[in-house]
Structures are given as structure tokens and as C-alpha cells.
Amino acid sequence: MKCRVCRGPAVIDIRRHNANFCKEHFLRLCRDQVTKTIAEFDMIAPTDRVLVAVSGGKDSLAVWDLLLDLGYDADGLYLGLGISDYSDTSGQFAKDYAAGRGAKLIEIDLPSEYGFDIPAGAKAVKRAPCSACGLSKRHLFDKAAMDGGYDVVVTGHNLDDEAAVLFGNTLHWQTDYLGRQMPVLPARNGFPKKVKPLVRLGEREMAAYCVLQGIDYIVEECPMASGNKHIGYKEALNAIEATSPGTKHTFYFGFLARAAERFRDDVEAERDALLSCARCGAPTSNEVCQFCRLSERAAGAQPVKMSATRTKSPA
Amino acid sequence: MKCRVCRGPAVIDIRRHNANFCKEHFLRLCRDQVTKTIAEFDMIAPTDRVLVAVSGGKDSLAVWDLLLDLGYDADGLYLGLGISDYSDTSGQFAKDYAAGRGAKLIEIDLPSEYGFDIPAGAKAVKRAPCSACGLSKRHLFDKAAMDGGYDVVVTGHNLDDEAAVLFGNTLHWQTDYLGRQMPVLPARNGFPKKVKPLVRLGEREMAAYCVLQGIDYIVEECPMASGNKHIGYKEALNAIEATSPGTKHTFYFGFLARAAERFRDDVEAERDALLSCARCGAPTSNEVCQFCRLSERAAGAQPVKMSATRTKSPA
Hints:
Largest interface: A-B, 25 and 25 residues
Structural class of chain A: alpha/beta
Radius of gyration of chain A: 20 Å
Helix content of chain A: 40-55%
Order of helices and strands of chain A: EEHEHEHEHHHEHHEEHHHHEEH
Number of helices of chain A: 13
Distance between the termini of chain A: 22 Å
Largest sheet of chain A: 6 strands, mixed
Oligomer: homodimer
Shape of chain A: globular
């Protein structure tokens, strides 16, 4: 297995590119793909102050690392979600990376600052944990970016993530979500600009990136996510990708090129109807935003006990 | 396991309906679903002359049987595609059904009437066999319907088929195919009306229908189809359906309700550009239609030898 660029010994094959790469040229490929994506979708200007949503997993640590290497002024934001040992461990990976790199990590702890954790919050509002977690993260990332004067929020969603979300949205033809599923959401109505610079890179590449760069990350999936539908969508697409490498890329980028525009009106209508939350002032389609409703119901609810979570760092 | 309708012993469960049925009420369900589909999409008028595309498989024999039971004036059309023993055997099932039912079966034999079979045709034009086969079937069904003065062509595509085709079309965002993927295509520009009355019924139900009605059919898949992408799409959707029954129905009917319209313009543009084939007069987007081009290249080409195909009838 030889590197496509230098013909030296390769350390990774990327089937959808029909190519193998050595360490040096694989890392360069990752940087080049991120540079290309940022330019193509006008994601980040050189002088922008960037806030990276950091979970302690491979994708968010890799995108932070890539942006710092590319010279961006990028701080991290870690949210402690109170998911037992899992949160403690993932937070530690985020802190260790920041300390080692000399980068600034902002930390917000949901239980101590808002009085509830995700398991209790989900229970209080009878939502699936991933739903309560997602809305909390979106709200707190947005708020931190606006409060801190950041120009853009970066998330580590990779091609596998975006293809799986797109698959779920098309399976149910959720036309408003389809209209919104872009690698860039511009700043608007009190929301910060949000971008996904990893959409040209897959899950496996991001794991390899971290291993090759010596970045330790939490390998386990969140214990609350097990059995969720998103994982089933990923598995279904993985089966197709295995026989037809490149299908995920075709699916996601074909959507952006030829279909996304057709669902845009559904989002515009929703956007025009936005109000300010009566409690916190955040943009919302109701009088009180979903996070404030979750927070009011969940605060003071008994924290949910969870079993211990094993974690390991990549070899 | 009790029948949802009469509480008698059930013979089949349908998970997406969360219900079980005895023989009598399952057969009634099939008829009711077909009646509902025909009415909902204005598929067939009571006085229409109907031509059913019959392959000898469960779906086409079941839809023919259902239409005859519902009182429609429905003849069958069997195309001999020259796929070795598979064609001989599937043709025999079609003939046996027609004879037993006292129904009229038109037979067209590709090798003897057009001088080539599907394996040789596919080779001659360097197409996948399923592609050469599909275009030949569409052309010859259309021609037979127009020549015979039929009002509507019926095919046995079921919910599993349509969901898998839709999945393939969305994975590649083939916007023209998406605009055309309807259970009814109206007659236009020299094409007959084409309808799919089984879109509310699944593959498994159609197999059960045939078994319960004592209809013998070819159980094997076409030997040329093995490993094609359509089968992979079915498997991926089956995995999701297994954990979330009803997903295929949601996917297909959600598309019809909320998305199909958005792709309609892509079809209109194509339709406006139709010519008449210089050889056969059929509507085509080129000077000579795809079937005539296939036919010219393939006729006289050596027939391709294939190994024997086992077949069995359901118990």
C-alpha cells in the first residue's frame, strides 16, 4: 500500500478517493479538505473570532486542532451535560487537549449553572435524551457565542454525521430540516453564524487524524445515545458505502447542489415568524424558548443516577 | 395471534399496521388497499381496458388476480426476455395462471421477434443487464398497450420496490427520476397511462397473498440481478424497517405528499423536448429511441449462454 502522493509506505486507505496516504500526506489531505470547505462555503474569514464546540470526541478535537494549525483564532467551548462519568471523562479530554496546545477552553456546567442534567431534563419534559441534549447544546453554544462576541461557531460534524442526518430527514421528508441542512448557517435574528468545516472528511479519517496527531479523545459513544435512530441510519449507509464507496459524498453534496434549494422556502417561512424568548431573549418560535421551558421543568428535578462508563484513549 | 377483525386465528402479522389477520381478512385487506389506491390516484376507470405486465413473479400475478377479482377487464402481457431457463420457467407460471383463471395472456418473445436476448443485448451496448432489460420492457409494454388499444398499463411494483427506487434516486439526487416517481403516469406524447396499484402493499404481503390464493409463481430472483444496487438499497431499508416498522411507508408516501412536486419541473422540461423515433415512431429524446439503438446493435450478436436456474413454487 503506497502513498498516492510520495509512493512511500501508506498508513491509511480512503476507498471513496480510491487512494492510500502516508502520515504526512494524509494530514495534509485533512488540512487541504478543511481549507477547501472553508473557502467553498465562505465559512470563516481570517480575522474572525472562532468558537469551537468541543465534546472531547475525535471530531471536535480534530477540527479545533486543524483550525489552530491553519492559523485561526479559535477558542473551545466545553459543555458539562451531567451525563455521569461520561461527561467527567470527555471533559477531561477537552481540558487536556487545551492545556497541551495552550488554547483557551471555556467551560459551562449544566448541572451547577442551570440546576439540571440531561438525564433528568429529558425525563422532566418527556423527550428522548438526544433531543433534550441537542436543544440544550444549541442554546448554550449560541448564547456563549453571542455573549463572547464570537463571529462564528464551529461544530465537528463530519460527512458520516451529515449523511446520516440527511438520510433521516429524507426518510421522513422533514422539509423544514432539509431546508436548513447546510454546512453554513448565516448569522440571523440573534443566532450566530454556524459552520461545519469537516463535511468533506469521514468519521474514520477523523479517528485516524487524532491517532496520528497524538490527540487523546473519548472513544465511547455517549451512553444515552445507544439504540437511537441516528445510529441505525449510519449503519444502513455504511452497508451501502461498503459496496459503493463514495455514496455518502454523492448523497450529501448532490443534495447541496441539486435539492437543498427546493426546500428553502419552508425555512424562510419559519424564520419570519421568530420572536424573542420572554425569559432569556433568545430567538424562538414560541413565547418562551425550548431551553427555558426545559430548564424550568427540569431544575430541581432529581438527578438521574447512571452506571459508570468506561473510556479509553486511542493507542 | 388473533385476527384484528374477527379475533379468529391469524395467519399473518403486518408490523407496520401493528396487526394480525386471518386468511379471509388478510385477502380482504389486500383488495381494500388496492381499491383505495386505485381511487386515491385515479388509476383505473371501471370501463378501462387494462394491460397487466406479467413476469411470472408474485407481484404481477397478485395484481392481475386482484384486478380480475375486483371486476376489471384485465389482460396480461408476458415478455420472453431470453434469460435462459429463468425466462422459460417464469413464462410457464404466467401461462399456467392465465389458463387456470381463463384470462387472456399476450406473449411477446424478444429473441424470436427482435433477434436478441437480454444478456446479449446488455453486452452489445455495454449496459448493466437490468438497465437493458428495463428499457426493453418499458418500450415493449408501451408499444403493446398502444397497439392493442389498452387504456392503462398496470405493473406490480409494491411498496418495497418503490421505497428502494426512491432511496436510490434520493441517494443520487436524480431530480428527473424523482419528478417522475409517481404511482400514476398519465398518458402523454404517445406513452400509455401507467399505474402501480400495489404501492400500499409490501413484498411479504404479496408472497402471502399468492400462497393463500394458491397462485404458483417463480420464487427466485432473476439470475442477472444478483448484486445489483437495488438489492442493496432494499436491504438497507429492511434493516431500518425492522427496528422502525412503517418507515418505508412514511418515506414513500411522505415523498408523494411533501416532496415530489418540488421535482416536477425537471420532468416537464424533458417532456417538452420529446421527438418521435426515426425507426419506430416511439416518443424519445433522441433521433432514434434507446430500444431501437439497443436492438440494432444487439440483433445478430451471439446469444449468451447461461447456467440453469432452479425454480420452485410456494408450498
